[in-house]
Model the fold of this input.
Amino acid sequence: MPNPQLLAAERNEITEYQIYSRLAAQTKDANNRRILEQIAADELRHSQVWEKYSGQPVKPNRKLIWFYFWLAKIFGLSFGLKLMEKGESLAQANYQTMTEQFPEAAEIYRDEESHEARLIDMLNEEKLQYIGSIVLGLNDALVELTGALAGLTFALQNTRLIALAGLITGIAASLSMAVSVYLSNQTSTAEKHPLRAGAYTGIAYILTVILLVLPYLLISNVFAALAATLIIAMLIIAGFNFYVSVAQGTNFRRRFLEMAALSLGVSALTFLIGAVVRIFWQVQI
Done:
C-alpha cells in the first residue's frame, strides 16, 4: 500500500503545478508569466519524483485549484500566491522529515523555500503600486466618518438625518480627497498615474462611506446603528490590513491596532463633542 505521506506530497505538487500553469496562462506581464511557468515546471518535476516512489498517479485537488485561481484573479496575483505560499509551510516541514528515506526530498525542500522569495521579487501589480492611495482613502474615511457619525448620533438622534448628513459629508470628502491626490501626484516624481491614484483613493473612500452609513438606513435605534457602524469599521480595518500583510509582508497586528485606535479614538472624541453641542445649544430634533 502506498505511503499516505507520499501520496499527499504528490497531490500537493500536482495541484500547485495546475494553479501556477493556469495563472501563467492568464498573466499578461511577460516576466511574471515566465517565472510562473518555471515554478510550475518545478512543481511538475516534484510530483513526478513522488510518483516514482509511490508508484501511483494522483489527481490534483480541483477545489484548491479553483479557489486559488479565482482568489488571485479577484484580489490580485500577489495576494493569491503569497497566501498559497504561506500554506506550503506544512508541506515543507513534511519534506524535511522525509529527507532520510527519500534523497530527492532535500532538493525539493530547497526549491520550495526559494519559491516564496522569487514570487516576492517578481510580482509587480497595479493594486500594490497604488496601495498607498487606497490606504489614504480608507484611513481618512474611517477616521473622519466614524467620528462624524458618532458626533451626529448624539447631536441629532435621528437615523435618517444622520444617514443623510453622513452621505453628503462622505461623498463630498471623497471627491475632495480624490482631487487632492490627483493634483499632488501631478507634481510628484513617483511613477504613478495621477488619475489612477486619485481614482483609487476616491473609490476606497466612497465604498467605506457607504458601508459605514448603511446601519443608519437599516436600524432605527441610533445607538445600535452607531455600534454596528463601529463593528463594520473594525471589520474593514481587519480585512484590509490582512490583505496588505499577506500581499506586502507587513505586520498585521501593529497596523490593525494603529488604525483601530485612531478610528475609535476620534469617534469617542466627536461623540463627546456631539453631546456637548446637544446639551449647551439645546438641539431638539
